[in-house]
Every structure is written in structure tokens, then in C-alpha cells.
Design a protein that fits this description.
26% strand, 35% helix, six-stranded mixed β-sheet, Rossmann fold, 20 helices, alpha/beta
Length: 540
């Protein structure tokens, strides 16, 4: 019998203290043995991440505390360790892959500096030691980062969401820890890379005897990777058992509901309403600078000649692997990045298609008509603003004629539409919500302005399947009610299939296939499209 490495004993967690305390984890008991994989699953807000982060005491104890219970790591209570002891196990004995890589990586340091720091701290390798650079490159290559040696000088904002997540995985594993906490480790990755990362984690586990606490809402990943599963709901463990037994015969009603959740469906038919957005030969090229004088030695063609037309009420799915240029294209359409080519938009009812200005001052009046929901909700929400202030901020800028009462009514209506209608949510801050709840706040912030075009950059990547159902149903209802056109950037082909009427398949910055979603899902023409569908488990 393997030695117990982690043990939760009647563990509780509260937000706030005294009369304002709100208990979010209610006396859970869990064990994890050395070399074992335990999957912790449940919907957003169930307490999964709070419980996992408590193992390293990562949350500020000014606003979260643990009134009772223990978390034992190798027999020692983490909740009562002193700062020096805790610092020694963070990153060395226990590694963690965070759900939101952009907010977890330092925007001021290069990838080499950030991975080098953890090696220097825990293994004493000096910065100028050639072994340091070699170990960093090897770690990045293991997680599938392309051109790892050339990317060492890159900053986090220069990488795609999937590439940032791979850097996070490399950082968590570089010191060969005994325990890996993987909090949604494949959220930002496309289906082909997800399979590679899961295979990598399985291989490392066998080699190192690595124990893994795997937090996810993707039950397909759980089935392929975990040995044991614990299901959380509302801060309680409602069911626990071996993966094989739980999937074959779930006992709890909530577990059965999770397993039944499926977003399969037939693609929508393209509409016949007028065009609201048109892109013509969009190009975004980034210079590659080398040498002391940082002279341009070449170009990275992130987007290279993309064209499409989007009609009112339609949903265009932009699909491709991480780094294919999907998000860059979305930002170029919003004039958040300099680009070549033409972008034309119909700003209001009865208006004609007109070129979108590249000048920010001229573009500002159109911002309310074309909104974006970012992939990383925590990075796009101000930690210093309450939910009320976050959602109403756009109204203060773009709807100045509204009274205070009118703004409040719109804010409440938008939050209610995304499932956050509780009065208590209005005056809370983003760090008091789960990843899925933060994404709903970001969606409400965009919807409150009643846009004509909504650019959705992985809008449900941090949500569990049941919440994804709700968000997709909400977006479809809004499209039918208001004629909102959506550009849906995603690597989840099941979501794309259930929501989109048109598809644009991208690879290495170019379009390899486009057309109606129904036709592409039924009869894909390009080899790459067929490979994507096969990786997602969709029949070709």
C-alpha cells in the first residue's frame, strides 16, 4: 500500500471573518497517496480551487481563513507551518499549474528569467551557469513549446494563451516536485495539445512517482487520466471513488447530472440578414529583433491574409490550435493591434458598412458596438473594482445620458442574465469569485452595452459543462432577440458545433478551410480540419 502524501481532515474555509464570514468549504475529508492521481471535479464555485490553493496557503489570509481542520502534507500540517517551512515546499516539494497563466506569469520578466528564478531558488544554480539555460530549454521542449530556445527572451504577452499555459506547466515541473496541483492545466490548449500534455503528465508520474491533484470540469480528461475521483458541490464532497466505478455507476444525483451534460448538437444554418462586419485581407506581422541594436531580422506572420463576412445574428467559429493566430485576428478586428487590410462595420440599424478607423480617438465611439470577452477573465477585471463598478463602467463612458437608477437597473439585468443575480454579488471583488463566475462577470460587462458584434475569445474555457450549457443558451437567446453577431474563438469543437453557423479554420496564421459549419463538420476537405475533428472525438 502506497504511503499517504496529502490528507484533508475536516477542512473548512471561509471568506471574511467574524459576522461577515461566509463558509465556502464545509469540513471535507480527502486523501492522496504518493504516485496517485486524484481528480477533483464539480461546477464553478464548488470550492475546488479554494481547497487546492489552501494546500500551499496561496490566498491572502486577510480575507480567507481556515476555522477548523487540517491539511497534512507528508504528515505535517500545512495550515500551521511557519513561513520558512512553507516557502521551502512551494515550488520544490509541491508544484502548481494555475488556471489563469497570464495573471500567474510576471509581465515584466522574460520566460528565461521566470523559469531560471525557480531553479536558482530551489537548486542553487547560478544565473550564469550554462546548466541553467540548458535545463530551461529542456523543460520547455518537454511541454511542447515550439522553438523553445528562440522563445526564451519572449515576455508573457508575446505568447498565445496555450503557449503561456505550457510555460506554466514547465515552471511547475522543472524542480521535479513530489506533488503537482494541476488547476485546469489544459484549459487554454487545443484538443491535440491537451492529449500531449496529459500524456506528458502520465509519463512524468510514472518516472518520478509524482502525485497529482487534478482539478477540472472536463470529465473526458478525468476518464483518460485519473485513478480516483472526488465530486464537489457547494463546498462538500458528495461522492468519491475509483474512476472506473464512478463513471460506470454514479450514486449521487449531481454526479449523474455532470456525466449527462453534453454539448453535442447540430450546427446552425447561416442566416440571410445583412452583413454587419466584413474583413478583407487582414494581416498582422510581428518583427523579430536580434542583436544589441535590436534590428529587425525577419517577421512572424501571426495573421496572413484572412477575409470573411459576418451577418447579423450569425456566429462565426474561428478554430485552430494554440498559436494559430485566432486571438490575434480577434484583436486586429477590434483595432487593439495594428494590422493591414480592411475592416468594415455597420455601426447601427439602417447604417451602411463603413471602414473602421485605425485611429483610437475615432474608434472610441464604436467600442460599444463591438465588444470582446477575453480568454482570461481575472486578467481583464480590475481587482480594485466591485462587480457593480466593473459592469457599469462601460455605461458611464458610452451611455452618459443614463441616470444612476437606469445604470443600476441595466447592471442588475445583465448580471441576472448570466446567472449572477444575487444581491450580495454586487459589492464583491473579482478575487471572491471562482474562475467560472469571473467569466460570467466579464460577459455581463460586455452585454450591458447591447453590442452589435461580440468577439468571444474562449468565453467558456474556465466553465464547467453545466455552466457552458447556460452560457451558450444565453448567447443564442441574445442573438435571436437582438440580432447580435458573434465571432466565437475556441478550441472546443463540441462548443463550436453547438453554437456556430460558419467556420474559419486557421493554422499558422492562414485560413486552411472556411464555409458553413454544417458542411465542414459533415465533409471536411482539409487534412488539418480532419485531424482536429478526430482529436475532439467527432466522427469525420
Amino acid at each position: 500500500m502506497k504511503k499517504t502524501l496529502v490528507q484533508y481532515v475536516n477542512f473548512c474555509a471561509c471568506f471574511g471573518k467574524g459576522a461577515n464570514a461566509r463558509e465556502v468549504v464545509h469540513g471535507i475529508n480527502l486523501t492522496l497517496a504518493a504516485g496517485e492521481t486524484l481528480a477533483l471535479v464539480g461546477e464553478s464555485g464548488s470550492g475546488k480551487t479554494v481547497s487546492a490553493q489552501a494546500l500551499l496557503r496561496l490566498q491572502s489570509e486577510d480575507w480567507i481563513h481556515y476555522p477548523q481542520g487540517q491539511i497534512l502534507f507528508n504528515g505535517e500540517d500545512v495550515l500551521r507551518m511557519n513561513a520558512d517551512k512553507l516557502r521551502a515546499i512551494r515550488g520544490r516539494e509541491i508544484g502548481m499549474i494555475f488556471q489563469e497563466p497570464m495573471t500567474s506569469l510576471n509581465p515584466l520578466h522574460t520566460i528565461e528569467q521566470q523559469l531560471g528564478e525557480t531553479l536558482s531558488l530551489h537548486q542553487g544554480i547560478r544565473r550564469r551557469d550554462p546548466r541553467l539555460r540548458a535545463a530551461i530549454i529542456e523543460s520547455l521542449e518537454h511541454v511542447g513549446l515550439r522553438d523553445a530556445a528562440a522563445r526564451l527572451s519572449a515576455y508573457p504577452h508575446e505568447l498565445s494563451g496555450g503557449e503561456r499555459q505550457r510555460v506554466m506547466i514547465a515552471m511547475a515541473l522543472i524542480n521535479k516536485p513530489r506533488l503537482l496541483i494541476a488547476d485546469e492545466p489544459t484549459t487554454a490548449l487545443d484538443v491535440t495539445i491537451q492529449a500531449q500534455i496529459i500524456a506528458l503528465l502520465s509519463s512524468l508520474q510514472r518516472e518520478m512517482g509524482l502525485a497529482v491533484l487534478f482539478i477540472t470540469h472536463d470529465l473526458a480528461l478525468v476518464k483518460s487520466f485519473a485513478g480516483r475521483v472526488a465530486v464537489m458541490k457547494d463546498g462538500l464532497i458528495v461522492e468519491e471513488g475509483s474512476c472506473a466505478e464512478l463513471f460506470a455507476a454514479p450514486n449521487h444525483e449531481y454526479t449523474r447530472a455532470l456525466l449527462a451534460a453534453d454539448l453535442s448538437g447540430t450546427p446552425r444554418e447561416p442566416g440571410t440578414r445583412p452583413a454587419v462586419l466584413e474583413a478583407q485581407d487582414i494581416k498582422v506581422h510581428f518583427p523579430v529583433r536580434k542583436g544589441l541594436l535590436r534590428r529587425t531580422s525577419g517577421w512572424i506572420k501571426a495573421v496572413d491574409g484572412i477575409s470573411f463576412t459576418l451577418n447579423e445574428g450569425d456566429a462565426l467559429g474561428i478554430v485552430g490550435e494554440s498559436g494559430s493566430g485566432k486571438t490575434t485576428l480577434g484583436k486586429a478586428l477590434l483595432r487593439l493591434l495594428p494590422s493591414e487590410g480592411g475592416v468594415f462595420m455597420r455601426p447601427g440599424e439602417g447604417a451602411k458598412l463603413a471602414p473602421m478607423p485605425k485611429n483610437e480617438k475615432e474608434m472610441r465611439p464604436l467600442r460599444s458596438a463591438i465588444q470582446i470577452i477575453f480568454q482570461d477573465p481575472f486578467g481583464s477585471l480590475s481587482p480594485r473594482m466591485t462587480v457593480r463598478d466593473i459592469v457599469s463602467e462601460g455605461l458611464l463612458i458610452h451611455k452618459r445620458g443614463l441616470s444612476k437608477t437606469g445604470r443600476e437597473a441595466k447592471v442588475r439585468a445583465a448580471l441576472a442574465e448570466v446567472g449572477l443575480g444575487d444581491e450580495a454579488f454586487l459589492d464583491r471583488y473579482p478575487n471572491e469569485f471562482s474562475g467560472g463566475q469571473r467569466q460570467r462577470i466579464a460577459i455581463a460587462r460586455s452585454l450591458v452595452l447591447e453590442p452589435r458584434v461580440l468577439v468571444l475569445d474562449e468565453p467558456t474555457s474556465s466553465l464547467d459543462r453545466t455552466a457552458q450549457f447556460q452560457v451558450i443558451a444565453l448567447l443564442r437567446a441574445l442573438q435571436e432577440r437582438h440580432g447580435i453577431a458573434c465571432i466565437f474563438i475556441s478550441h472546443d469543437l463540441r462548443l463550436v458545433k453547438s453554437f456556430c453557423s460558419k467556420l474559419l479554420i486557421m493554422r499558422a496564421g492562414v485560413c486552411v478551410e472556411s464555409g458553413s459549419a454544417e458542411e465542414i463538420f459533415a465533409r471536411p476537405q482539409h487534412e488539418y480540419t480532419r485531424a482536429l475533428l478526430a482529436s475532439a472525438g467527432l466522427k469525420v
